[in-house]
Amino acid sequence: MRYSLGFVLALSLAGLQFVAIFVVVSTSYLSSERAMLKLARGLMEDAGANAVEHTKRFLEPAAETTEQAKRVLNSGLVSTTDRETMERYFFQLLQTEPQLAGINYGDEAGNFVYVMKSDGPGPYRTKFITIEDETRSVDFIWRSKDYSIVEQSTDPADAYDARTRPWYIEASALGSRIWTDPYIFFSSQQPGITVAAPVVFPSGALQGVIGVDIEISDISVFLSDLRVGDNGAALILNQDGSVLAHPDPDQIKVLNEDGTLSFANINDIDDPISRAAFANIDRADGSTGELQSNFSYQDDAYLGLFSPITGIDLPWTIAVYAPEDDFIGVIKDNRARNTWIAAIISVLTALAGLTLAELILRPVRAFAVRTALVSQGEVSATEPLPKTYRELRRANKTLINEIAQRRESEATVQELNRDLAHFSRVNVMGQMATGLAHELSQPLTAITQNVDAAITTASQNPVENQDLLEILRELDEQAHQGGDIIRALRGFIRKDDGVMSEFDLRILISQTCRLMRHEAEVRSVNLEYATGDFPNVKGNRVQIAQVLINLMRNAIEAIESSNAKIRNIRIDVSEQPDRLEICVEDTGPGISKDVILFKQFQTSKAEGMGLGLSICRKIVESNGGRLWHDADVQTKTRFCFTLPIV
Amino acid sequence: MPQLKTLSKVFLVDDEDEIRLTLSRALSKRGFLVETFACAKSFLDAYDSEQPGCLVLDYGMPELNGLELQQLINEKNILIPIIFISGHGGVRESVQAMKAGATDFLEKPFRQNTLVACIEAAFEKDMAARTEANDQKAAQEKFGRLTTREQEIASYMMDNPSHTASKEISRELKISPRTVDHHRARILEKMEIGSVTELMELSAFVNND
């Protein structure tokens, strides 16, 4: 485990949270964006349709007025020769239709009547061009709204000839009503368009052409009021790309080198967005249908729409554009905001994760601390657990068992170490005894040899040396007694011991008694042991001897401490079906009830270590037997142990 | 028995001066011929195989110990009986020594009577071995006098004591019974024996391969 639980929890919770929120935000954004863009398209289409409708309605009165004037003039209700009536008629028409700029009539002879709205001395101005007897006179009359004359003037220099104007030529040539190309009105310098229709004699011959001017700068005003998103705009383009109407009316006129004004081309106007939007739209293929486009300008995405003006015979197109952000800006902002919210929530979640991890870990930590204390033995394993998880409680049970087992085995190891130390002491004693036996055997042998030599010599005169021979034989016998002790010692500690073997227990008992005889005698204790015929037992000979010595020494010491009169130790052997039972009984004071036998390090002896009996019991048990204190025997002390028969 | 004491010698090998001194003195007093050596090597150097006797050998000695000397003696095909004396005792050592052919194993200090009995038994054993060796040598020498064919017939008879009739031999060796009779007479004459039965007795001493 490389990371802490808290870190992992915090990171994963925060990460999950962030991913989840981000996915939701993104998908909702995408679907909203789609819907919004669709809506935007609708809005733009509406705006386009609105503009188209407005333009149509704006232009229609001109057409109607033209038709009406044409019919009036054709029918002769107003005579083309009655110029005062015509002027008055035109004046009334102009008053009823406010978007009309002027109405004129020019005839084949060159006569011309033109009533127009004016900025001059009066709101209306009439221009007459009269050709009479080859003479041409140009008169101007300014009138107020009530038709009263405000001012009059003439302009002999005026060279205007209606018959040379495009609208006249076109209408007369076609013989039907026409729309001229838009142009900048000469007099008002406003963009406009003229509707013209031929006026004919009843014979059908051309009498003249009636023209109605309409200023289209009002369309620009309308367009500037038209809302297309927040930052969108609509404009009207002519077939040739010239801009007829623009929210900024100043954009549409350009001053030519010859001083005349003309329409600006879309590619030239000072409106980069419009240029970007529509300059590259190539409608040269003559397609007239609606066209949608997407474009970008200065890294902002825009929507574009072309909508041809239908229902009127003009090749105009309404062009609408708007930045996408006008429609989806809000949800874009929303997305950004949501992303931030997601980030903040993630951070909060991470904090929550850390807190949660802390909450989760606290019992674990408490548990770990406790376990450490238990393993060091500072806290008992039986102490109640701190409040913790069920899993940990279960783990704790196992752990505590482990610890208990470990402590137990540690104790066992210590015990074994103590035993080992004891046995190694015994072993050193054994080695010393072996060496001693060897060293003693040499002089004893020399003595016996010398005695033998002496006996042989003395035997040559047996009668004389009778006493000497007797002494020598005793000497020989005594030397051999010493030899017997050594032999017993040697047999007792044999090199090849330390393994389980079969042996005669009686021999071992007699050897042991031989070795203990001195110790017993100096304390005036009598040693007795049973004779009889018993089967061999199996065990570790030296270890069993050790047990016997231990028990006998205990008995001797007990008797000595009691100053008893009868000082006797008896070793009995009895045969059971599968084992021999050996009892060491002494006439000592017995064992008081409050002494706990076989307990390590508990001793009633000043020099004892309390190891004797407990080790003896262990030795006997490891040899397949049992050792116990026979408490049934009163006034005496009796320890018994068994050994398996071969 | 008395002549054994005068013919045979007790070779005593022990690294302890006191033992060598007292033991040799006591045995000499009892009428034994005793020669002592302080180590195994000096015994081997001085040993004369013609001298009958027995070896009383200390088990625990520095350098070459008793068991190792016994092994050397066995390797050299010296047929001297060995009586071990040991200050260490030990069942395992005694078993090892007895397995390697020792006559006895005594723990120090031992009763002199026991040692004397052991020595006398060893002398007898040595004598018997020497006699047997001599007999074998003599028999082998006599067997060597026979011709190849005679050796063949003698060997057959020794190997098959139940088929010593001339007919059986002639059938086996594919020669005539008369020839067999002739050879048989020559065999008995050359080996200085009177009957086939005596030949059988010699067979133990003859290496007829």
What does it look like?
The complex is a heterodimer of chains A (646) and B (209). Chain A is an alpha+beta fold. Among the domains of chain A are: 389-495, Helix Hairpins (Orthogonal Bundle); 499-646, Histidine kinase-like ATPase, C-terminal domain (Heat Shock Protein 90), CATH 3.30.565. Chain A is built from eleven helices and 23 strands. In chain A, the strands form five sheets. In chain A, strands 1, 2, 3, 4, 5, 6, 7, 8 and 9 form a nine-stranded antiparallel β-sheet that branches. In chain A, strands 11-10-16-15-14 form a five-stranded antiparallel β-sheet, with helices on both faces. A five-stranded mixed β-sheet of chain A has the order 18-20-21-23-22. The longest helix of chain A has 71 residues, at 5-75. The radius of gyration of chain A is 70 Å and the shape is rod-shaped. Chain B folds into two domains: 2-133, Response regulator (Rossmann fold), CATH 3.40.50.2300; 146-205, Winged helix-like DNA-binding domain superfamily/Winged helix DNA-binding domain (Arc Repressor Mutant, subunit A, Orthogonal Bundle). With 209 residues, chain B is of the alpha/beta class. Chain B has helices at residues 2-7, 17-29, 40-46, 66-75, 91-99, 112-145, 148-159, 166-173, 177-190, 196-202, and strands at 9-13, 33-37, 53-58, 82-86, 104-107. Chain B has ten helices and five strands; from the N terminus they run αβαβαβαβαβααααα. Helices cover 57% and strands 12% of the residues of chain B. The radius of gyration of chain B is 23 Å and the shape is elongated. The longest helix of chain B is centred in the middle third of the chain and has 34 residues, at 112-145. The chains are: A alpha+beta (646), B alpha/beta (209).
